[in-house]
Write a structure and sequence with these properties.
The complex is a heterodimer of chains A (about 100) and B (about 400). Chain A is mostly beta strands and about 100 residues long. Chain A is built from two helices and four strands. Helix content of chain B is about 40%, strand content about 20%. In chain B, the strands form four sheets. Chain B has a six-stranded mixed beta sheet with strand order 9-11-10-13-14-15, with helices on both faces. Chain B is α/β, with parallel strands linked by helices and about 400 residues long. Chain B folds into two domains: about 5-245, 3-Layer(aba) Sandwich (Rossmann fold); about 255-390, Rossmann fold (3-Layer(aba) Sandwich). The mean pLDDT of chain B is about 95. The longest helix of chain B has about 35 residues, at about 215-245. In chain B, helix 1 packs parallel to helix 2 (about 35-45), helix 3 (about 60-70) runs parallel beside helix 5 and helix 10 packs across helix 13. Classes of the chains: A mainly beta (about 100), B alpha/beta (about 400).
Chain lengths: ~100, ~400
């Protein structure tokens, strides 16, 4: 699952009890990045780049940090982690984000 | 060497906590354990110890605060009784599964309802499967000694489990007895500094504790706890041996009283063992080969030791100060019989539920138990494998 941290990468569902950390503690931080929550999604946002003013209002409201920003401009969604909550769609004043049922 | 004192069970445990000087004590008052946090908070207020006393709003919070503090790397303690322990329920499992060696005096009291503040073991017996080590004291001396040993047992690297040290509410907690306490420096040297190997406030290492555990890992983590509970048997014995060198007082998983040639025995926990020893003495004077097994450690359960102690008796009475509502006896009865099954032949067993809600247990009460055991031997029949002692009916 989420245990891709350096010290944790040896632990897999095949690991025996004595190869695992006590209580499942994770010796590292930021490990939620390795847990792909995107497959929980039932609705999906889409970025309409030509409408986007790069105001970045959508970025801080995303609960899953799934809107990457580079050089002051947003990029397309990180669909590995976007759970499809639609908050960005509500926050966008420029119709640069659509939000529809995830067809896949 | 040691210091002769007179303390109640609550004060004895509080003195032990003062001598240990834990980093954190988070507690909420509940009868009859209230005096423990009360004493400890006064030691803090008087500057006798530098423990961080956290006055929480409930026992769920006291256990949660201990979990947070211990995870951060601090030696943490609390104390409770009865419904307070019940309110901690959820967090008891969390403490054990996070492998945090929190120590907690439990002053045994009946659970509501009907509401009752007096002693029985229904509170801690209900918590027997939470993954905590459980130690039971017969008197204030044992409560003090167990408290000191509990810290070493839980914190051992092969154990890392929380420990509850139980004593009987009012009977032990409020009765003042002569006891021997150790010099504070000796207690401090015995328990040592708490140095967690992995802890949240370590600036050198990032660590996340208590993550969601999917089905692919959960069973292995539960088995880790079982292995630690098995290791605890070795550690409990080692710590007891070291404590004996320090104090001159010898402790084992069980205490056998006049069991060498006993035909009739009772298995019992806590303060009533003292009363029952007097009953055994009287019966011995009457020529009856009576004996007693007192359980000091209930978790891990000392099955081998019990089998060894009981293998040659004719009839055993197993005394439960808690109902199990299984229609098949109390928790001690169930576990002792499970230990005997397949390991001994010909030992008959009768399970008694006694002393609920503080019902007085006298020498005569225990003698009526032995009378029934003799009757079972004479007739060869067990009239009721499970019954209430002294019930009006």
């Amino acid at each position: 699952m989420c245990m891709k941290d350096n010290k944790m990468k040896g632990i897999t569902p095949e690991s025996t009890y004595d190869q695992m950390t006590p209580g499942g503690a994770i010796y590292g931080s930021g490990n939620s990045e390795f847990f792909n929550t995107g497959d929980w999604r039932v609705a999906i946002p889409a970025w309409i780049e030509e409408n986007c003013k790069h105001c970045l209002l959508c970025v801080p409201v995303c609960p899953d940090s799934s809107i990457p920003v580079k050089d002051g401009k947003r990029l397309d969604f990180d669909f590995d982690h976007c759970k499809g909550c639609g908050i960005c769609y509500k926050a966008c004043p420029f119709k640069a984000i659509t939000f529809e049922k995830d067809g896949k | 060497m040691s210091i002769r004192e007179r303390f109640s069970g609550n004060e004895a445990v509080s003195i032990a906590i003062k001598q240990i000087n834990p980093d954190v004590m988070a507690a909420f008052p509940i009868t009859p354990s209230t005096e423990i946090p009360q004493y400890v908070s006064s030691y803090v207020a008087n500057g006798e110890i530098d423990t961080e006393f956290v006055a929480v709003e409930s026992e769920h919070s006291s256990m949660s605060a201990c979990i947070g503090a211990q995870a951060a790397g601090a030696r943490s303690m609390t104390a409770t009784s009865s419904c307070g322990l019940a309110l901690m329920w959820e967090m008891l499992y969390v403490a054990a599964s996070l492998r945090l060696p929190i120590t907690m005096p439990v002053v045994n009291r009946a659970l509501s309802g009907p509401i009752n503040i007096n002693n029985d073991h229904s509170d801690s017996m209900g918590a027997r499967d939470t993954g905590w080590i459980q130690m039971y004291a017969e008197n204030a001396q044992e409560a003090y000694d167990n408290m000191i040993q509990s810290v070493r047992i839980g914190e051992h690297k092969d154990v890392l489990l929380p420990v509850m040290t139980c004593q009987d509410g009012f009977i032990t907690s409020h009765a003042v007895e002569n006891i021997n306490i150790l010099e504070t420096e000796k207690v401090k040297a015995f328990v040592g500094e708490y140095k967690a190997e992995k802890y949240l406030l370590n600036p050198e290492e990032n660590i996340s504790m208590g993550p969601y555990d999917i089905s692919a890992y959960y069973m292995e983590h539960k088995y880790q706890q079982a292995v630690s509970m098995e290791n605890a048997k070795r550690v409990i014995a080692e710590v007891a041996s070291e404590f004996e060198t320090l104090s001159g007082r010898k402790y084992d998983f069980i205490e056998e009283y006049k069991m060498d040639d006993a035909d009739f025995a009772i298995v019992i926990i806590g303060s009533s063992a003292g009363t029952a020893k007097d009953a055994v003495d009287e019966l011995r004077n009457e020529g009856i080969k009576a004996g007693l097994v007192k359980i000091r450690i209930f978790r891990p359960f000392p099955a081998e030791e019990i089998v060894k102690a009981l293998k040659n008796v004719k009839v055993v009475g197993i005394m439960d100060k808690a109902e199990g509502y299984s229609n098949n006896g109390g928790p001690l009865g169930a576990e002792v019989k499970a230990a005997l099954y397949g390991n001994v032949t010909g030992v008959k067993a009768v399970n008694f539920v006694y002393g609920l809600g503080g019902r007085d247990v006298k020498i005569e009460s225990i003698k009526t138990v032995f009378e029934q055991l003799l009757e079972v031997d004479k007739t060869g029949k067990v009239p009721a494998h499970y019954q209430y002692l002294g019930l009006r009916k």
